[in-house]
Amino acid sequence: MTKNELHDFFVKKQKDADAAGKGVDWEARKAEWKQATEDFYKLVSGFISDLSHEGLVKVSYRPKQVVEQYLGTYEVREMVLLAGGEEVVFSPMGRNIVGAVGRIDLIGEMAEATFVLFPDQGWKVLMHPGRKSVPLTQENFAEVLRNVMRK
């Protein structure tokens, strides 16, 4: 590819990207995504509420900056669980996910897991092997924690 062809290629890519973003209320999408992360945290908090009340799990939050095309730079919260001296972090990765409405990664000491928000299906967790998605239930949540935390 010549230098001019490469230039033309990238100019077309930029025009295509600009056209794809027109007519979309990106601020509304960002607000919806931020609310979806908070709703996710409420769901997770419900799964562990008894454990929190017993003092077995401590929950805290910290800010995270995310940068996404069209949405720009924005701040969300990460949810941190502390249990038995071990920390796991629920970290929002972004709103603009192919085939989904958003993604939150769970980062543990032994592994990571992925939660995906699908339109009209709610939150699902990608389970190994094969990374099939299953609904986020208390049972699946417990299995994911066992997989990402030390034994």
Secondary structure topology:
Blueprint: H1 3-21, H2 26-53, E1 58-68, E2 72-83, E3 86-94, E4 102-107, E5 112-118, E6 122-127, E7 132-135, H3 138-148
Antiparallel strand pairs: 1-2, 2-3, 3-4, 4-5, 5-6, 6-7
Describe this structure in a few short sentences:
This protein is 38% helix and 36% strand.
Shape label: elongated
Number of domains: 1
Helix-strand sequence = HHEEEEEEEH
Largest sheet: 7 strands, antiparallel
Structural class: alpha+beta
User: What is the count of β-strands?
Assistant: 7
Return the CATH architecture: 2-Layer Sandwich
State the CATH topology.
Metal Transport, Frataxin, Chain A
The proportion of residues forming helix, as a percent range, comes to 25-40%
User: Roughly how many Å is the radius of gyration?
Assistant: 19 Å
Overall residue-averaged pLDDT value: 89
State the CATH class. Alpha Beta
Uncertain stretches of 5 or more adjacent residues: none
Distance between the termini: 53 Å
H/I helix tally: 3
Biggest sheet strand line-up: 1-2-3-4-5-6-7
- Strand composition percent: 35-45%
Notes on the structure:
The chain is of the alpha+beta class. The protein has one domain: Metal Transport, Frataxin, Chain A, CATH 3.30.920. The protein has three helices and seven strands. The protein has helices at 3-21, 26-53, 138-148; strands at 58-68, 72-83, 86-94, 102-107, 112-118, 122-127, 132-135. A seven-stranded antiparallel sheet has the order 1-2-3-4-5-6-7, with helices on one face. A hairpin with a 2-residue loop joins strand 2 and strand 3. The longest helix has 28 residues, at 26-53.
